[in-house]
Structure formats: structure tokens, C-alpha cells
Amino acid sequence: MPQQLHQLSSFHIGTAVKWPELSQKSSYSHLALSQFSSFTPENLLKASRIQPQRGKFNWQEADAFVKFTEQHGKRMHGHTLLWDRDLPPWINDVPGDEKVLLDHVRHIMTRYAGKFSGWDVVNEAFTETGELRPGSWFKVGGSEYLTKAFVAAEKADPHALLFYNDFDLEVNERKRDAVLSHLIKLRETGVRVDGIGVQLHLNLSTTRLNKIASSLKTMATENFLVHISELDVSVNPYDGETNTKEELFAMQAELLVQLFSLYSEINPSKRYGITFWGVCDNHSWITSDLKQVDYPLLFDDEYRAKPAWHALMKFFSNS
Ligand code: G3I
Questions:
Q1: Annotated catalytic residue 230
Q2: Would the CB of 229 count as within 6 Å of ligand 1?
Q3: Annotated catalytic residue 241
């Protein structure tokens, strides 16, 4: 039996990667390369890094990432063109200047045309109550900024698949319906939107698999590709967990198997893949950026496989 998770799966199993680790730590890159077939750069392409000053793009690390990933034959998923976080300060000085938005999308996607299979063109644009956020890109591009972004993206790289990416779409029906109806309207006016990224930052306490199943099915039925784009399972979300690690890891494994099982029921032509938001626990945004004690991923701090990895290997071997 192969010991590589992605080899057993009929859909892509990806991971978000941190470039410093990927380029400098051989244990990290070896693990990422052996277990995952699709790489999403976790932070490299965010606006503050890629365009720190207006019109001055910082390609060095992104180019290196693309070269490395291409050499290793991995699929690349681009994250993310327009998001209201991780922005350079100058963006606040250009309200109403839609050229900024168009140039941002065009420069990045043109440079890497043909390299990335898909892009999160717009990330987290809707509020919990289903309104468009009045954030920085809204101020720059106006109320039609999603249309402008997707049209510019298609023009810059006609072969790339174009995604809208967001959180809570699986649990918040109001938000999900608002997003779906907005994207369907865009399509009706001839704008191409290929898929939806459903982030799925889950935890053991509140996750409801039946809600996730029905949301994913609705998206596929509406003819969108479905990307589980940022998967992790927090086992200590409120920092008061009293179960043993062994018990938590068993629950985490069970939840992931159920999730993979329900994703496998989606029409294969609509499965873009499942991407974990990180390789191992100590590099997860939950531990390294939020500084919480948690174990949300498939591999531990020593790069060893956790029960969830073993359970998924078994799931694929038996299916
Ligand atoms: O690299 C710098 C380092 O040089 C500096 O010393 C340090 C000091 O704070 O910061 C480091 O950058 C941090 C970076 O992560 C790398 O660890 C940033 O402060 C921190 O804000 C950044 O957080 C990222 C966050 O998005 C904001 O961009 C997380 O890693 C990343 O996992 C997270 O990912 C987001 C998705 O893009 C969108 N969906 C939600 C998801 C989780 O928040």
C-alpha cells in the first residue's frame, strides 16, 4: 500500500504551505511533497507582500515558490487576489480608483498565467448577514467590484479556474444563500465564476456534518466546483479541553473520515479537492499566528502522522 495520502485519493488533497519552511526545512518539504498533490501558498500572494507599494510588485518569493512547485509536479492554487486583510497601507489612499484593482488582478495573474490551476479571486467579501462588506476593495472598486475582479481574472488567464472563497458558508445559511445568489447573478450577466472555496476551519464542539453536506451539495447542484479550501479541525477551541489528547485525536480522525466520506459523494466533476490549511500542527495559523494550544492538522510537531492521517489512509484503502 502506498504511504502517500494523495496517491490513494481520486480527488486532489492539498495543503497550504509556508514558503520559508518549504524552501528551508527539508523535513517540512519532504512531508508536504510526499503527502499532498496540490499546494496553496498560505501568505505569499497576499496584497501586502506581493504589492507592498503601488505598482511595485515583489515577485521574488512568489516566483521561487512557483518554480519549486512546478518542478515537483504539484498543482498550484492561488490564494488570494482580493481580501480585506493583509493589505498594504497605500490601499487606503486610493478609494474609487478601480484601476488599482484591475492592475492588481491583471499583473499577478498574467505573470503566472498557465501555472496556477485555480485562483481565489475574491476572499471573504460577505458579512455574516449576507451583505457585501464595505471593506477596502469595495472602496477601491465600488459595489460591482466582484464583477470587475472576475472579468479581469478571466482575461488575464483564461485557463485558470476562478473561485470565490469564504468561511461559515456551511453553517450560516443566510450568508451562503447571499453568496450563491450573488455568484449566480454574476454568471447570468456572463461573468465566469467556476467554483466556491468553502474554508472549513472546524472544531470538535460545533461542527455539524449534515449542514456541511447539504451546503456542498447545493453548490454542486448549482454547477459550481466545490473546493474545501482551508481545512483544519481545532481540538481545543476554547482552551479548556479536558479530554486526553488520545481521545481528541480519535474524535478528530472520525470527523475527518466523515467529512471525506461526504465529499466523496459529490459528483466527481464538481470536486476540485480538499486542501488542509497547513502541514503540521506547529505551523498551523492557530498555533503559530493565534498562539493557541491546539493540534488541528494531520501531522504533529515532529512531522509524525497523527491518528487522522492513519484513519484517512484506511478510509481510502477501503473505498
Ligand atoms: O512573516 C512575518 C514575520 O516576519 C513577523 O516577524 C511576524 C510578526 O507578527 O509576522 C509574520 O507574518 C505573519 C504571517 O501570518 C506568517 O506567519 C502575520 O503577522 C500574520 O498576520 C499572518 O497570518 C496569516 C493570516 O491569514 C493573515 O494573512 C496566517 O498565517 C494565515 O494562515 C491566515 O490564513 C487565512 C486565509 O488567508 C483566509 N482565510 C482565513 C485564514 C485564517 O485566518
A1: yes
A2: no
A3: no
